[in-house]
Amino acid sequence: MRNNRINTWLYRHKGARAALLLALPVLWLAVAYLGSLAVMLISSLWSVDSFTGNTVHSFSFTNFHTLLTQKVYGTIAIRSITVAVAVTIIDGLLAIPIALFISKVLKPKFRSVVIALVLVPLWASYLVKTYAWRSMFSDGGVISWALKPFGIHGPGFGLTATTITLAYLWLPYMILPIYAGLDRLPNTLLEASSDLGASARTTFTSIILPIIYPAIIAGSIFTFSLSLGDYIVVKIVGGTTQLVANVIADNVGTAGNLPFAAAMALLPIATILGYLFVVRRSGALENF
User: Fold this and answer.
1) d(CA 220, CA 23)
2) What is the signed CA dihedral for 182, 187, 192, 198, rounded to 10 degrees?
3) Which candidate, 195, 179, 170, 168, places its Cα nearest to that of 104?
């Protein structure tokens, strides 16, 4: 009898039960993600005793004062954002023709194979791919060997190597959203544009680009945020170059200055949130 009452209550309140089940992931997000961000924000207001090396749990804006007054950190911040923007632009310029070829030129029976080939690099180890690029950028590597007959020396380790390596690593994250956007583009629109005498350039700028614009923005969120938060690539192929992420990692590991690392970490978070705010205000993702 009691079980019947319980089952009756659950049936009558199935909406509440579903809401409770849906609320659990949101609760986890609030506790694990937003909670950790709140802890990081609080710890960024702490400081480290220069004599003992112990963390001083008293609020001050010393870390933010250091970030704003020392020119080197401003230079690193601008350099990091520039690299992230450059990676996003490079991936966009490469991904659009690749996705267009896959979705509109290839026969349907070959598309799944090519998409699988696009995804294959994601199955390989991140470090293996990065060290492969290190061997190519090193003196006597493939790039220097290929450019030597033209009297051109390879770029070596540095900002260029970091940008190229990051662009290679995150390219699939740009191709897939753009391919999804192009897959929804009816071929009849392209045929109508051709029948009306529009050139390939006009068709691309007037029809294709406006339709895949939300997909480009979606892919740029991945490439921009992943590039801004990466600290391993610059360690391997960056030479003496420093970016925000590896400064954070150095302060966590080598220097042991967690409060300053937390303050520095707020910079990429604020940058990404600002970018997401601009994207949302533009309405680029509403129909994606």
Assistant:
1) 30
2) 50
3) 179
